[in-house]
Structure formats: C-alpha cells, structure tokens
Write a structure and sequence with these properties.
- With 163 residues, the chain is mainly β.
- It contains one helix and twelve strands; from the N terminus they run ββββββαββββββ.
- Strands 1, 2, 3, 6, 9, 10, 11 and 12 form an eight-stranded antiparallel sheet that branches.
- A hairpin with a 4-residue loop joins β9 (97-106) and β10.
- It is globular and about 75 Å long.
- The model is unreliable at 159-163 (pLDDT under 50).
Length: 163
Amino acid sequence: MAKVNDGLTYGLDQFKFNNQVLGYISEEGLAWGGDKPEKVKINAAQVKAGPVKIITKNGGTNVITFKLIQLDGPHCEAVMGGKTEANGTYTPPAAITLEGAAEIVCSSGHTIRISKGNLSAKLSGNINGSEVLAIDCELEIMAAAGGGAGYTIVPPTDSSAGA
C-alpha cells in the first residue's frame, strides 16, 4: 500500500549512522530536542513599546537522543567505536565521539537525512529483571557544508501516482 503524505511524521522503522543500521532502540524511540535560537534585543531610550531591533546571535541546535538496547559487538561499535573480537567480546575506546551522516526511516514513509552529526554515547541503565542495560546516545546535528539546517525531511512517495 502506498504511503500518503498527510504531513504527520511518526514511527521509527530504521535508524542508520555512517551507513550502518543500528540495532534495537528502546520503545521511547528518538527524542528531538536542542537549544532554542539565541537573540539579542536592542532597546532604545526613545522607544518604550519594545526593542527597535532583534539580532539572532545563533540559530540554536538540533539534538536527537535515544537509547540503544541491542548491545552486541557490531551495534556497540556503530555508536561507540571500539573493537569486537572474533568471539564477540566488545571493548569500547577511551573517548566515545563519532562523526558521520545519519538517516531515520519513519513508519509514515518519511525519511529524515542528516548530512553530518556528532554522536556521543555512554553505557547506562540498570541490570535487573525488568530492564536492560542500554547505551545512551546523543546525536548533535552539525552545520551543513553548504549552509542550512544540516538535515532534510523527505516526504513519502506515492508509488501509485501516474498509474
């Protein structure tokens, strides 16, 4: 069945970083946040109603956080670097920061493409009978080489169009 672009983006089908599909992500999915743009308000003594000019100091940040819960060697390497031995033993590096492109495929048919992001990761969580150990991941979207937001949202394509 063809996906229709109704403007609603939802559901995580797949998350790739550096062209590698990441493993299972906790049911909370991906949380998109970051800092709001910073602005400087220029006020004048002669104008009491508000600022005479507003200057954008910076455009803010876009940060995606998630918990990777499938902690086999290849998935750990994908978000933390390090090395997996032939027997499956994983050893993380001392510093855990990676850079690369990312792609989020949504159940709605949308795809979010991130041209460059900085991924940091840290082992966290509980080891007990009701939770699993996870890797807390944070992907900060970096400036695009040609300017712009550093990401694009591609709508679903209607494969039945023109048929």
